[in-house]
Design goal:
With about 800 residues, this protein is an alpha/beta fold. It has five domains: about 100 residues, no CATH class; about 100 residues, OB fold (Dihydrolipoamide Acetyltransferase, E2P) (Beta Barrel), CATH 2.40.50; about 220 residues, no CATH class; about 40 residues; about 260 residues, Metallo-beta-lactamase, Chain A (4-Layer Sandwich), CATH 3.60.15. Helix 28 links the parallel strand 20 and strand 21. It starts with a helix and ends in a 16-residue tail after the last helix.
């Protein structure tokens, strides 16, 4: 009996050993391979036209199926299974954020938030909050929103908000900044619209109190925006001209607490601790204390920035570096870089949408690549001069290797960026940031105030050459993708020395890329009209052979305009030269960008229905346009007709120029290419429409109608629609219009008339190609850049 029991135990033990061996082998996928699989698995989030909407049950089923596949297949099967698993993980994050946006925008909910933004005054403002709970259910992964409130609030407080979320939304145009992608990369789901609010915890955070205290010292300084950005990682106080100079010289990265700043904090802590250890007995000298102090200072710097996303990523990479450094096994630096990138994507797959993530990742990889392929000779690296030469050597590598990323993200490069970085980065790294740490660590107001004045003077010195260096900025918008492919292919070829073994193959790939690009070139027949997505306003680009006329120029506000944000970037993106501007009437949402456009393109002629006049009323209303010297002004009133290329323009309205141009004085133009007619209506209202119909009747018939007055209820009468009989209508409007336009009544009027509805708020930029009888419609959200993060979030504008 005992012998049988011993036999069974031995048999089970042998079996367990066998299965344990199989199980161990099945897990034989290295961390490096898993990291590569993770990066490949999340990359599709950049390009997916639609997110795969999986139910939670199906998601769990697929995930466990892949786990089983992982234990069954060989190495390649495991690698592919990991890629699919990580893709599902990233896809789930996308589904989760979309579901939350749709749910929270549909009805009122109790939303518990923690304020993480740092209000600097008690005025009404938008502040950033983290959503903790929805109807008492914990939110994971974390989501953020902005809250516009008149309440006196501070960071660290908790509030219960009963209300809805106004879903994230932004203008989308070619060449413009993709704000909607930025929101999703930072997990910002929209703006909270509160019905009722209730405080849950009213204590301000220690960080908010620290910021309040330092603001009293920072406010009198001339460069307070830069200092505030370096101390707290917040660019909100940065002056517009300084922000422009920093961007055009490649120094914007200094204004966000990220890898450089966290690394400096860590090194500063080590340096200070090593200095103290110099005076201590030998038994107190070790590596642990400097590492702990350095890490503590890095954590503090990340904390004082509010654990901003770039700072948190850098802190994660630093922790991984310290962990690897203290392991007995030997690891390569590139493994640390790869694991750091993968680790960030594991915890936050939506980081793949972030420009800052790509810039910081490529910067680290560029440094490692440059130092491994083109190391600095030993004899040049000696002494103090070696440090300076090493810095120059490193900056040259970064300048060269980051050109593709700069062209993709910033649409240009500055050849003097090397000089700007060699001048400003050492000042910040060796003088400003260490002084900031001393300000934080020495709680003596006189010392802090003196150091801040020194910091202000150093920054002023650093900014002096930037206006001159910024003039070397060169824009390369819409650079062909194959050039980036060749750049990165060249880097890989050199890194792995494929040019020695596969020279013929590499040459063929390069030739094929060029041939494919050449075969893709087609003659652009016809002409096109683009309606830019600018919110409430109008900006139309009428283009033939890369030359354009503009009909209206959008809005303007303090220090900015639609011309700067959308119109000029679009023109540069397509290498279009504007030759003239037609201003429909003198309201700011139509004329706001005119000054900026004429400053950028001084040769522009301006045609309008409100000038030039010598009356005092005109001067008062149009004083901005009067300041533009050498401006060729052309009138726009009934009876004028001209031909430009294949297009014929005819002005139908107004009957005469008006010193003060109102909606019904809009310059109404009908243009034709011989196949189609387009009616540009400005902001005419019912009375203006009635006058047009009485005057022209069936002559108004057009293929395409621009909805008068952005589709408001004061326009688009049945009388106009019966006489124009358009097949499609274009509306330029904002999703969240203060005037609630376009009107649902007008929308259904067009729909019931079987007129195709195109709205910039819903579709983004609208481009219509006119090719003889054919019209090709391209919408930014659906045809031009069909991406899941460009889609419409929340309820439809006009529920059926």
């Amino acid at each position: 009996m005992i012998e049988n029991i011993i036999y069974i135990i031995r048999w089970l033990n042998n079996r367990l050993k066998k299965y344990n061996s199989i199980f161990s082998k099945s897990l034989s996928v290295s961390i490096t391979m898993a990291s590569i699989a993770l990066i490949f698995g999340t990359l599709p989030l950049l390009f997916l036209p639609k997110i795969i909407m999986l139910s939670e049950l199906l998601f769990v089923f697929l995930f466990f199926t892949l786990i089983i596949m992982f234990f069954v297949f060989g190495k390649l099967g495991k690698f592919l299974a990991l890629i699919i698993m990580f893709f599902l993980w990233g896809n789930w994050h996308g589904v989760n954020i979309i579901n939350h946006v749709n749910y929270l925008s549909n009805q009122n909910n109790d939303i518990d938030v923690v304020i993480i933004g740092t209000p600097l005054n008690n005025k009404e403002q938008k502040i950033k909050v983290r959503i903790e709970k929805i109807n008492n259910r914990i939110v994971f992964p974390p989501l953020y929103a902005t809250w516009k409130t008149k309440e006196s609030v501070c960071a660290g407080q908790s509030w219960r908000i009963n209300g809805k979320v106004r879903p994230l939304h932004s203008s989308l145009n070619e060449g413009g900044f993709n704000l909607q992608r930025y929101y999703l990369a930072n997990r910002i789901i929209g703006v909270l619209k509160s019905q009722k609010v209730k405080p849950l915890q009213m204590r301000c955070s220690v960080r908010q109190k620290i910021i309040y205290n330092y603001m009293e010292l920072i406010n009198p300084l001339s460069n307070k925006g830069v200092i505030y950005g370096l101390m707290f990682g917040d660019r909100s106080l940065l002056a517009a001209d300084q922000a422009y100079l920093l961007q055009k010289t490649g120094l914007t990265h200094l204004m966000a607490i990220s890898g450089l700043h966290i690394g400096l904090a860590y090194l500063f802590g080590i340096f200070i601790t090593r200095g103290i250890q110099y005076f201590l007995p030998i038994k107190y000298i070790n590596e642990i204390l400097p590492t702990v102090i350095g890490l503590g200072l890095a954590v503090f710097y990340a904390w004082i920035s509010g654990f901003a996303i770039p700072a948190t990523r850098a802190l994660f990479a630093l922790l991984l570096w310290i962990y690897i450094k203290n392991k007995p096994a030997r690891y390569f630096v590139w493994q640390w870089a790869l694991w750091s990138i993968a680790g960030i994507l594991l915890f936050d797959p939506l980081a793949i949408l972030s420009d800052s993530f790509w810039l910081s990742s490529f910067a680290v990889l560029a440094i490692l690549y440059w130092l491994s392929i083109f190391p600095l000779p030993y004899h040049l690296a000696k002494g103090v001069q070696g440090k300076i030469i090493g810095l120059i050597h490193l900056q040259i590598g970064l300048l060269v290797l980051l050109i593709p990323m700069q062209l993709i993200i910033f649409n240009g490069i500055n050849i003097m960026g090397l000089v700007a970085n060699l001048w400003f980065v050492p000042l910040v790294s060796w003088c400003v940031v260490p002084a900031i740490f001393v300000v934080f660590l020495v709680p003596i107001e006189v010392v802090q105030q003196s150091l801040l004045y020194v910091i202000d003077s150093v920054i002023a010195l650093g900014l002096k050459p930037l206006p001159y260096l910024s003039t070397f900025w060169s824009e390369f918008i819409n650079v062909p993708y194959y050039l980036f492919l060749i750049c990165w292919l060249s880097i890989i070829v050199v890194l792995f020395k494929w040019y020695k073994r596969y020279f013929g193959l590499v040459s063929c790939v390069v030739i094929l890329i060029f041939l494919e690009r050449g075969s893709g070139k087609q003659f652009k027949e016809g002409w096109r009209m683009t309606v830019l997505d600018i919110g409430h306003g109008l900006a139309v680009v009428i283009e033939q052979n890369n030359v354009a006329l503009l009909y209206d120029t959008g809005n303007a506000w303090k220090g900015d305009s639609n011309a700067q944000r959308q119109i000029i970037p679009f023109l540069k993106y397509h290498d279009i030269t504007p030759i003239g501007v037609i201003l429909s009437h003198n309201h700011l949402d139509h004329t706001g960008g005119a000054n900026y456009l004429i400053q950028q393109y001084p040769w522009l002629s301006v045609r309008s229905s409100f000038g030039p006049q010598k009356t005092s009323a005109y001067r008062k209303k149009n004083n901005k346009l009067n300041k533009i010297k050498n401006m060729a002004h052309l009138p726009c009133f009934k009876g004028q007709k001209w031909r430009w290329g294949i297009l014929t323009f005819e002005v139908l309205w107004p009957e005469k120029l008006a010193p003060i141009s109102h909606n019904n004085d809009s310059c109404v133009i009908q243009l034709t290419d011989g196949y189609h007619k387009i009616l540009l209506t400005g902001d005419i209202e019912k009375q203006g429409e009635k006058s047009l119909v009485e005057m022209y009747k069936n002559r108004l018939r057009s293929t395409l109608l621009f909805a008068p007055h952005h589709g408001s209820s004061t326009s688009s009468t049945d009388l106009l629609l019966r006489n124009v009989q358009p097949s499609m209508v274009v509306v330029s409007s904002a999703r969240y219009s203060a005037w609630k336009i376009p009107s649902p009544k007008v929308y259904f009027r067009y729909k019931n008339s079987n007129i195709k509805w195109l709205n910039t708020a819903e579709d983004g930029q609208l481009t219509l190609w006119f090719k003889k009888e054919k019209i090709q419609i391209s919408r930014y959200r659906y045809e031009i850049q069909p991406r899941w993060y460009h889609l419409w979030f929340g309820l439809p504008l006009f529920p059926e």
